[in-house]
Specification:
alpha+beta, 3-stranded mixed sheet, 8 helices
């Protein structure tokens, strides 16, 4: 077992991960390269101080401490009218308060469609943050680039609107299924669209998936709602949507 002496004394024996732990380093994947480099340096006659420098060069930087909860504020653009909505907002607030402790986040906001997602440190659906000098893959969800739209249809039968809408769209992670994407074909089979698929290495070969998913609603907190405007009584269709795959 390697031992470290005083001053410039050399290390004797083979350096292992256990050696690094005894020197006060926290175990990690970086140990393997650090051990190899340290043993190579020891073979060249490096003393204890030089070996520590070799190990330090492979060690990850110390973690940046989290902010105190509440130190960083965020915009809150969501209201609650019922007990269920208030419970949802409370869960979103708890998630955002924890998320805003991340030291790379400079600003945050909660949108009106927000709902909580995973565990501590995950961004709620409908949450948005601005980060500095960092990319956080976990802060992006499958609903990225989804949209909310309203269509005011006038004095029509709301039941008929809902029936027609549900006949033509689809909720969930998958496509419409065999043959149900036919309504999208005239658009997606246009030569210009097909040429773009052919020229894009990420889309080439996914034409059938696009047909199946085109115009679908997605999932998560997506919805299709038919009701009447309080102001005029007109029937309106509101959708929160975002097709999956290349649809």
């Amino acid at each position: 077992m390697a031992t470290e002496g005083d001053g410039g004394r050399q290390i004797t024996g083979n350096i292992t991960g256990k050696t690094l732990i005894e020197w006060g380093y926290a175990p990690g994947k970086w140990f393997a390269k650090a051990v190899d480099a340290a043993n190579a340096a020891a073979a060249r006659g490096a003393d204890a101080e030089a070996l520590r420098a070799v190990v330090d060069a492979h060690a990850p930087p110390p973690p940046i401490p989290l902010r105190a909860k509440g130190e960083a504020a965020y915009g809150r653009f969501i209201d609650a009218e019922t007990d269920l909505e208030r419970a949802n907002v409370a869960a979103v607030d708890a998630a955002m308060a924890e998320l805003m402790r991340t030291p790379t986040i400079r600003a945050g906001a909660v949108m009106p469609d927000a709902c909580p997602t995973g565990g501590a440190g995950s961004i709620p659906v409908g949450g948005a943050v601005a980060c500095e000098n960092a990319i956080h893959p976990a802060f992006h969800s499958a609903d990225i680039c989804c949209s909310v739209a309203i269509s005011v249809l006038g004095d029509v039968d709301p039941t008929q609107v809902l029936d027609l809408a549900l006949e033509r769209t689809h909720f969930g992670g998958g496509g419409r299924g065999e043959g149900r994407g036919a309504r999208a074909r005239p658009l997606l089979d246009a030569p210009a669209v097909l040429a773009e698929f052919a020229d894009n290495p990420f889309l080439n070969g996914l034409e059938e998936a696009a047909h199946a998913h085109f115009g679908t609603q997605g999932d998560g907190n997506h919805f299709l709602f038919v009701g009447r405007l309080r102001s005029t009584g007109e029937v309106a269709l509101v959708t929160h949507h975002g097709s999956r795959k290349p649809g």
